């Protein structure tokens, strides 16, 4: 009797939980323990502060998605107290089985924080943290892409960056055949 093994990281019907944590900021260790992503300058057009693919190395059917985001914005304009909007979005970018073959699946972006409106004064700082569990019904697969977008209102000029305490953690089952 000859057995054929299907490609993929797990056998069909076996859902072993796969845990994965990804922090967004990496680099040299800081003396105060705080690291930030590269700084992006924000004006009156939308700017991506962070755009990162979170890839665990295998395709997963997500069971749980935990997020923790801390972003920091600083006002630069010396004569104007500005306000800004920003939001975090996420979408799946995975390979899933379809008709016996693995196909690319790119979902639509889902706002996971809503649009946040903040006043950022001259040379002032605004830092917020969002934490919680995102619904996996709208984000069923991993890898995922995470984007932080910001836009200044009126003539505000600011900088934005993401703190090293920000992370995504997910639990999922490997998708056989991908």
Order of helices and strands: EEEEEEEEEEEEE
Number of structural domains: 1
Give Rg in angstroms. Answer: 20 Å
The major β-sheet equals: 7 strands, antiparallel
CATH topology: Immunoglobulin-like
Looking at the overall shape, the CATH architecture is Sandwich
Q: DSSP strand (E) fraction?
A: over 45%
What is the end-to-end distance? 26 Å
Helix fraction bin: under 10%
Question: What is the molecular shape?
Answer: elongated
Global structural class? mainly beta
Task: Describe this structure in a few short sentences.
The chain has strands spanning 18-23, 40-42, 47-54, 60-75, 82-98, 101-106, 110-111, 116-120, 125-133, 141-142, 144-153, 158-162, 167-174.
Could you describe the 3D structure shown?
This protein is an all-beta fold. It has one domain (36-174): Immunoglobulin-like, CATH 2.60.40. It is built from no helices and 13 strands. The strands form 2 sheets. Strands 1, 2, 4, 9, 10, 12 and 13 form a 7-stranded antiparallel beta sheet that branches. Strands 3, 5, 6, 7, 8 and 11 form a 6-stranded antiparallel beta sheet that branches. A hairpin with a 2-residue loop joins β5 (82-98) and β6 (101-106). It is elongated. Residues 1-6 have low confidence and may be disordered.
């Amino acid at each position: 009797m000859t057995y054929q093994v299907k490609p993929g990281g797990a056998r069909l019907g076996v859902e072993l939980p796969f845990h994965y944590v990804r922090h967004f900021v990496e680099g040299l260790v800081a003396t105060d323990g705080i690291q930030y992503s590269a700084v992006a300058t924000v004006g009156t057009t939308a700017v991506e502060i962070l755009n990162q693919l979170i890839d665990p190395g295998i395709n997963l059917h997500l069971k749980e998605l935990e997020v923790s985001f801390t972003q920091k914005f600083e006002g630069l304009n010396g004569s104007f107290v500005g306000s800004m909007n920003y939001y975090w979005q996420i979408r799946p970018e995975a390979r899933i089985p379809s008709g016996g073959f693995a196909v690319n699946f790119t979902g639509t972006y889902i706002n996971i924080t809503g649009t946040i409106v903040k006043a950022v004064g001259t040379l002032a700082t605004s830092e917020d943290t969002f934490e919680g569990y995102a619904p996996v019904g709208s984000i069923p697969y991993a890898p995922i892409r995470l984007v932080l977008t910001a836009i200044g209102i009126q003539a505000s000029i600011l900088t934005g960056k993401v703190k090293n305490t920000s992370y995504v953690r997910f639990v999922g089952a490997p998708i056989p055949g991908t």
